[in-house]
Amino acid sequence: MKNILFFGNSLTAGYGLPAAQAYPSLIQAKLTEEGYNYKVINAGLSGDTSSGGVYRIDRWLNEPVDILVLALGANDGLRGIPTRETTKNLHEIIRKVRLKYPEVKIILSGMEIPDIVPGRYAAEFRKLFRELALKENVSFIPFLLEGVVGNRYLNLPDGVHPNAEGQKVLAQHTWKVLKDLL
Fold it and tell me: Which GO molecular function terms does the record list (predicted)?
């Protein structure tokens, strides 16, 4: 059996929902249904930033990682952390995983922040994921929350975290890229 490590924040953890409704669990169900012998490991931690991920990744590398789904950065964007810092941290997480598991396949989940944020930050933030995916030669989901962000029918009352239906959309975006790596 191969392992898929979902390494992210509240979006991955399925904030406010039963674990079975988080998109990594939905991916596990899809893998099982389609006959793939993979185990999904949900390493989502609500509130986590890319710098938190750098410190946290090591303890998840005790078990083999065949595929890494890296979905950090949204909280960096919400906090206005400089994009070069987020880029450096995501690069470091990828480096650590590849050092331990050179054959690992990696998917980077792109994040965006609303264009209502003044200045160039929103554009720089969006670009950092595309540039990192190219530079690191990893698979790429352009925007994990595409079609979910701002849709009140797909989010919890807080307007930030996907509800069960929203998590299904995150699973679809992820599956589109993941299925080619299985």
Answer: phosphatidylcholine lysophospholipase activity
Q: Could you list the active site residues?
A: 10, 158, 161
For residue 90, give both structure tokens. Answer: 């995501």
- Who contacts 172 (Cβ-Cβ below 8 Å, separation ≥6)? none
User: How far apart are alpha carbons 90 and 141 in whole angstroms?
Assistant: 15
User: What does the pLDDT look like over 35-66, one tens digit per residue?
Assistant: 999 999 999 999 999 999 999 999 999 999 99
Contact 125, 83 (CB under 8 A): yes
Is 158 in contact with 11 (CB distance < 8 Å)?
no
CB atoms under 10 Å from CB of 110, counted, come to 22
pLDDT over 90 (residue 14) = yes
Instruction: Give the Å distances, CA to CA, from 44 to 2, 13, 62, 83.
Output: 19, 4, 17, 21
DSSP-assigned beta bridge partners for residue 107: 69, 139
Over residues 67-97, the pLDDT tens digits come to: 999 999 999 999 999 999 999 999 999 999 9
